[in-house]
Amino acid sequence: MNHNQQSTDGIHEDDAALSEFLASLMDYTPTIPDELVEHYLAKSGFQCPDVRLIRLVAVATQKFVAEVATDALQQCKARQTTVVKDKRDKQQKYGVNVKHQEYFADSPSTGMDPASRDE
After folding, report:
1. Disordered: where is this region (predicted)?
2. What share of the chain in percent tops pLDDT 70?
3. 8, 31, 53, 73: which has the highest count of C-beta atoms within 10 A?
4. 34 to each of 3, 53, 61, 98, 110, how far by Cα in Å?
């Protein structure tokens, strides 16, 4: 019986924390305007007169967009670091070879015009 009382106390604490969080949303102005969230919720078929829920969706959307932007920035930085590292490695390992190839001939007349060889 003690176990059941503890689990119901946990539920009441969760409900109280959720209620407090939702109440705090009334004083918070998210980056995404309420009207925009309402528009897209209505477009998907969801109607809700509770501003707290609208703002909760706005906060969740804002967090999602921020995480995507942060991940994209980290990927971009990692790609740039890899490109710079690869360029440095290639420059150190592979340079431009300006040494001319050596050509060998069987006789001094090799490469001459056939008409001039007879002379």
Report:
1. 97-119
2. 61
3. 53
4. 42, 10, 12, 66, 87
